[in-house]
Amino acid sequence: MSRKRAAELQERLDNELRRVSLDHCVKCTICETACPVMGVQPLFGGPKYSGPQGERYRDGASVDHSIDWCSSCGTCTVVCPQGVQVAEIISLAKAVKRAEHGGPIRDVLLTQTTLMGKAMTPVAPLANAALGNRPIRKVMEATFGVSADAAMPPAQSQSLHGWLKKRPKPSKAPTRGSVVYFHGCAGAYFEVEAAKCAIEVLEHLGYEVLVPPQGCCGLAAQSNGLFDQATKAILDLARALAAAGKDLPVVSTAGSCVGMLKHEAKHYLGVDDPILDEVGVRSYDISEFLMERHEAGELDFDFRPIEMQLPYHQPCQVRSQGMGAPASDLLRLIPGLKVVDSNATCCGVAGTYALKKEKNAVARAVGQPLFDMIDRTNEGLVACDTETCRWQIAHETKVDTVHPIVLVHRALGLSEG
Amino acid sequence: MRTVVIGAGLAGLTASIRLLEAGVDVTLVSKGPGGLALSQGSIDVLGYRPSRVTRPLEVLGALPGDHPYAVLGTATVRESVSWLGQRLGLVGSPATNLQLPTAAGAIRPTALAWASLAAGDVRDHTTFAVIGVQQVKDFPAALIAGNLDRTVFDGRELRAGFGLVDFEARDGEQDPSPVHFARALDDAATRRRFASAVAAAAGTADVVLVPGIVGLDDPGAWDDFVAALGRPAAEVAMQPPSIPGLRMFQRLLDDARALGLRHVQGSLATGFTHEDGRITGIEVASAGHSKHIRCDAVVHAPGGFESGGLGVDSHGVITERLFGLPLTVDSLAGLTEPEVGAPQPLFEVGVLVDADMRPLGLDGPVHTNLHVAGGILAGAQRAREKSGDGIAVASAWRAAESILGGAR
Amino acid sequence: MVQRLSADVVVIGGGSTGVGVVRDAAMRGYRAVLVERDDLACGTTGRFHGLLHSGGRYVVSDPQSATECAEENAILRRIQPGAIEDTGGFFVTLPGDDPAFADEFLAGAARTGVPAQEIGVAEALRREPRVNPGIQRAVEVHDGSVDGWALVWGAARSAQEYGAQILTYHRVTEIVRDGDHVAAVRCRDVRHGEDVEIACNFVLNCAGPWAGQVSAMAGCEPVAVVAGRGIMIAMNHRIVNTVVNRLVYPTDGDILVPAHTVSIIGTTDVKVNDPDDTRVPAEEVQQMLDAGEHMIPGFRTHRMLRAWAGSRPLIKDPRVSADDTRHMSRGMSIVDHSQHDGLRGLLTIGGGKLTTYRLMAEHIVDAMCEQLGDERPCRTADEAVPEPHARLHKVTDRLKAREESRTDTRALCECELVSEDDFRREIEAHPEASLDDVRRQLRIGMGPCQGGFCSLRAAGVACASGKVDAEKGTKLLTDFIASRWKGVQPILAGDQVRQAALDEWISQGTLDVEHVPASTQGGVR
Predict the structure, then answer these.
(1) Is A32's CB within 8 Å of B291's CB?
(2) Which of A57, B210, C224, C348 could form a disulfide with C316 if both were Cys (CB 3.0 to 4.6 A apart)?
(3) A54: domain range?
(4) Which of A19-23, A101-105, B300-304, C513-517 holds the top average pLDDT?
(5) What number is the ipTM of this complex?
(6) Do residues B205 and B158 share a domain?
(7) Residues C470, B145 contacting (CB under 8 angstroms)
(8) What are residue C34's DSSP bridge partners?
(9) Full-model pTM
């Protein structure tokens, strides 16, 4: 990328408050105790070094290549007691490095999530066969640097919008007003089941569910330092969601993508646009939304029991939304369900991090404590809010991994027939 | 009954566990993991006043009336600290101080500590082998040994020598974080290799002192290390990140989670709602929108100046960040001394409370259901007199008792 | 017992002037000895804002100084690049300042040969986006930032290569006369408690604001020096990457200099009787913060690291009132004591500024040559000082170096990225050094935590070297904690309060430094 572009990015970097948050660093090193990558990869200098410490030395030039080991999981920002936006500082420095020095074309390919879904849906069995085929994956690794050991999304033969067009109208009339459903790329193409469950749960509870046409949130592009692409994506998305209805709650099953709407686009990308602010404040993770309504006394769930022990993993990018663990709270309302929180920092996938051949081993090592915990506790099912994490968990543990809403759907009696 | 506890340090976790044990719903709101990651893995009650204290409970009653212990009373301190010590399996009691070597070679009084630390008590040993690790930069063995060696404790001349081992906990890493070193020693084979390296360097002293990095997650790591070493040994706590402190944090957090804690991590409490002199809810800065947590009582344990619970702006105005509570002093003028050797009056600034740990305004409690605990309390030079842990535990205990009493 | 040395010339004062003089004298073939009561560059030279003047500051008020600065700026970039960062500089017209002054400024710059070019306000704000968006005009100049310690030590090492002797921690006690001529300088080696007498033909008094005290030691009427105290505040990071000057007639709080990882705002000007009065009064801190806020909106919310004060060494000029030091000439002046006091072989120099230190040295050594009847031309402008990296330094240098060695070497000071190896080399080469001395070489303890984390490490490495025992190691530790606190205490606010509380938590709470035995006599009851 051009020097000019690098200069523009640097300018924004200098300008933004998050960079100035480095002033809050008291060197306490708590971020290092929590960073999952540093724990398994000594080549990464860690969040303190790459973040507030390194930033004092960066006058435009990118000289610290070890920063690339950061997976952008955001844990450092979550644990920093002083309010340093560590992950945000690193993310911007990565983008500057990217602009100055460029990066592999693979990183661009990995961010084309919508395109990938569109391309794969019509040929799902074929695509799944290809992605499950070791020789083909080896060729992909050699050609593009996409790890042969990484989890790949399962393509579905019907997209969400395909299902929405064909399904009969909901039988119950809405009693609680409308919500806008944000499904994310995965919900549209790869994890259609979770999206269907979400829509049916919301409708069952009395909401009218509006599902506007919508694209990618840009998170993958952002974590690969492709800030232009990410900015365009998130603004297009915000506009699409805003067009569905004024002041309506935006409810999502895409655990990390909704974080883009809420805070990441603003604080990592530096997008300063009223449309994003307006949509961001009314965006909810679906469990967060349901728990808030429940705790406000508006919603009661008439859950049927599910007798099982269920490991639940809250992804790093959901934890970083600072809302507690609403999915865990929600699942605990289901009689008979024994929820075991993983309390694990990160599954390692961190969006597209695990897909890169040089990072895959690190990603798997990061996730190992989680996979071990799941091995110990699962009775055939794991719950987790984010798609890429579910693919990674299922890939590494061979245990069925679902969005929490799938269990809610089942507990509401919507899954039979 | 719903409570919100703000802060995940020793005070916040103590309050949470006490409330959860009583069956109360607790939401813990914390910006970071709290101060335990920075502390020593021991529980101080009172170490100096200003001369060395050997039996803390006997002198608490003589502290000035504005000291937190004067408000809390000796019985609460004894009961709460003993409870915590039993819960964690610590060595020692609030009645008698241990005297433990520090990473600068001083002898530090503290009431309770992990067994691995308590094993270094200078009351029990005269000769010390201080074994440093080249890769662990916060444990200066030569300095520690040299200072112990010129110490006369209770009329006894201590003797100490030092050794240095070269030990890469992870291959090729010369500058590891203590956390990663400790985690590497959670692995039994690595730990045994470490033990034999230490044994080879340790000479014949009564006790071997090693940096406080022998395992983090494996609770059996220390005993296994000592068995492999084959002789008495002790850990010495280091500057942050403190592994013994992290062990304590992890244990207390796990306990609280097992009791059903709801934890909102990484979020600053930014505001509150109130009605008729009672706090009705806490606003939390969650991503995108603020989150309102309804509650019937609050334990506010955000820490003092180190965490920003108390702050000073560029004009020298001192404030309590969240509730704007009245402070003992609200202007910095005259509160700092140019001599670093002198206690800094600034660090005594804080909130005054009643016996229920409720912050006091001119006309009594500011809010009837708001309680504070830990570093935010006024009247103590915690770092110098070594009193911060005891104040945190006892005040959190008292705050929880008060809430539970109120609920009855 | 008195140790006896002899020299052609004794230079008193180890600031930039003295070191420049000893280098110059040594290069001209004189046997030269420099004596300094502290470490090098601990007085005025180590207590300024780090500006390498373009000359812009003086184009209107002091044209001669402006020209000298512009010329010396170019020379120093050539002979001591490793001490200099090419930050560039802006003069900006802040809201409320007279935009017409820029015209006077540009005309002055043209007259004095100071390179200056007006640039668009938008361009200036694009390059320094935090500057007050209300600026009305902007002029670009060739300011730089200079590390005073690196500059002085570079020149000192060059002087040593030419045979000069540098005696630090030697306090002059007497200038011995033989009739109407200087005969020797007596001093006290304060670290070893010994007296040293250096027989010499000539003494050059380069003691800056202490020049009056030194001249009195020769029995002369004290040179009238007005010490003008100014405070500086280091901010935690580079708020700007270009030197930003206020485009007005020189005044208080008119400059913000990016220096290494920090930015430094300066300065005030208060007449003091004692040049060792380096207090940082609270009202002057507030004055700097207001000035900063005017230049950079939001300045008060940024983190202050520490503050210090230095004394300007101005020779009293009868043309202006002694109460108003700013309007005295910054130009250097030389006092020939053979004319004033009937003492031959003693010259005193005053005034000047760091940027022109080499030129000052040239002038006074020229004057000495003239008195001695020697024809020895100055060569200091032509020969670069020996430096490991003969290029202008950049703020990214240390991060780049750390990146290359991170897995192999430990970082001792993580804030300023000083390696344990570099520290060990330094302390082994200078086992008598205090940590503050090492700080001036390596920048340990100069970052956000102000030694909170590295003090113990440094003392530990010193002890492990075997050259420092635990008693001395403990003194290194406690002295450094005390000297760091001295700079933090006057500016305690905001994030630095959190840091100070954590540092106290570590040093008192965790390490219990207060109760390490102070000496072999002291014990623990």
Answers:
(1) no
(2) C224
(3) 3-101
(4) B300-304
(5) 0.97
(6) yes
(7) yes
(8) C11, C166
(9) 0.94
